[in-house]
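Translate structure to sequence.
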């Protein structure tokens, strides 16, 4: 079926009292203690409230609570007086905060987030609205870590199945999960029903938008479909710059890609501007580091690697390569058709430099499993929704090799470890930002990743929908304010 076929199809609109949101992938769990996939995390933000939120530069700001730092290892959080109740009608109090984080810290829970809170020594209830967190060691980034949705203590004691029947204090209430690819929520302030429907194929997603079978879709649409949607009188396209960081990763234990000169040649040999313009529909900006320049710890002075074929070829020659002795690289990516197209362009650009690249594509589960296990030479992936700079320890510290972190390329660099430790432990915010910038400059020189771009967030929606607001991290918070114009 092609897009032009839509003109011949009958229009079957969704009821006006239901807003249908098309998803590329299904949520996995609505228990915030176990959520790791982006879809579940974005929907969970609608169902639960967290102690800490982030401003436009991704600095921590009060969410469900304000806080004060009593000492280097003592933080006191006070719940807002105007906080909403849980959807079961019970009030949110300090006991719920303690129970939520205690549950994560219990080894038997097996929460994947437990390591994030390993510095917590104790959690103490001061009064009904106040909780003290005492740490084993100073952690200036600690408030920004408290982003787990708060759950009712009474239900946690009952071993309630939050994964399938979530109860939170967010702007939406869970209504039903009748099948894997369909979830229904109710907006608490006016009863608006939002139905999340999984439509994996992007072309079918746009067809359903045109036929009125869904009302909106966010991201995971190739540029040609977005441009097609712009021309349709019943649809609108919204966009916002994003922080999702796309990069090439390398197995640094491999004798070929483990050589810095080769990675530098790759960095200079990719025409990011052309890929962004022609493949991404200009819906991205070149990247120079994992954190975008508008992040409080980002480095606006760090310039992305320019496209310089001559310099790339010189680096290959200096590394001992020639037309008769070309480096051989296996490049792994997912089987998503758009990602394959982008990877194919990168393959062609590197081949023109004198690098033989074999492209291998796999379904997501197999691909991601290989990356986590270190079964790769080179791969492309994106970090999604990164907010706090502790990501550097998780992704690059020598102690963070899987299963203890996401240093999947086995990058080991003593100076990087020192810079991470210094930045993470700095108490003065201005100096801490400077330390993170120094770290990013070093990473840009040693290239455990080759930065590619930050992709924009794009929504295609029925024109009747108003006041849907996009954010830097691509969350679904716009559903709290969106309405249908009659």
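Result:
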């Amino acid at each position: 079926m092609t897009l032009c076929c839509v003109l011949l199809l009958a229009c079957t609109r969704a009821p006006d009292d239901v807003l249908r949101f098309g998803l590329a992938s299904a949520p996995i769990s609505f228990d915030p203690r176990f959520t790791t996939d982006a879809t579940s995390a974005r929907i969970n933000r609608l169902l639960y409230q967290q102690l800490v939120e982030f401003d436009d530069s991704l600095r921590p700001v009060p969410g469900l609570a304000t806080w004060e730092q009593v000492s280097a290892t003592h933080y006191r959080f006070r719940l807002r007086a105007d906080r909403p109740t849980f959807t079961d009608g019970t009030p949110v109090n300090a006991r719920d905060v303690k129970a939520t984080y205690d549950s994560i810290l219990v080894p038997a829970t097996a929460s994947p987030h437990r390591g994030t809170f390993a510095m917590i020594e104790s959690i103490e209830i001061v009064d009904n609205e106040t909780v003290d967190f005492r740490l084993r060691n100073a952690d200036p980034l600690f408030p920004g870590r408290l982003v787990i949705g708060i759950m009712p203590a009474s239900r946690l004691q009952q071993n309630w199945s939050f994964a399938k029947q979530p109860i939170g204090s967010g702007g939406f209430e869970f209504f039903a999960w009748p099948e894997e690819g369909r979830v229904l929520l109710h907006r608490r302030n006016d009863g608006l029903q939002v139905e999340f429907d999984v439509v994996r194929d992007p072309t079918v997603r746009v067809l359903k938008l045109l036929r009125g079978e869904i009302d909106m879709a966010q991201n995971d649409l190739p540029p040609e479909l977005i441009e097609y949607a712009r021309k349709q009188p019943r649809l609108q396209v919204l966009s916002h710059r994003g922080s999702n960081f796309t990069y090439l990763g390398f197995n640094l234990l491999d004798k070929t890609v483990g050589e810095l000169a080769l990675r530098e040649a790759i960095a200079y040999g990719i025409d990011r501007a052309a890929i962004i313009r022609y493949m991404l529909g200009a819906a991205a900006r070149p990247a120079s580091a994992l954190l975008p320049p508008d992040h409080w710890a980002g480095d606006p002075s760090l310039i992305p690697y320019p496209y310089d074929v001559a310099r790339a070829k010189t680096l290959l020659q200096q590394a001992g390569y020639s037309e008769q002795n070309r480096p051989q690289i296996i490049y792994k990516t997912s089987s998503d058709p758009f990602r394959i197209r982008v990877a194919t362009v990168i393959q062609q650009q590197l081949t023109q430099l004198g690098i033989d690249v074999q492209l291998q594509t796999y379904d997501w589960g197999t691909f991601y499993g290989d990356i986590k296990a270190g079964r790769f030479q080179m791969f492309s992936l994106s970090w999604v929704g990164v907010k706090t700079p502790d990501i550097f320890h998780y992704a690059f510290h020598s102690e963070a090799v899987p299963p203890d972190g996401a240093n999947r390329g086995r990058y080991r660099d003593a100076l990087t470890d020192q810079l991470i430790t210094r930045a993470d432990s700095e108490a003065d915010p201005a100096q801490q930002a400077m330390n993170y910038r120094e770290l990013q400059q070093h990473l840009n020189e040693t290239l455990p990743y080759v930065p590619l771009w930050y992709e924009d967030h794009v929504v295609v929606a029925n024109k009747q929908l108003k006041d849907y607001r996009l954010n830097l991290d691509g969350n679904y918070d716009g559903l709290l304010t969106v309405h249908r114009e009659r």
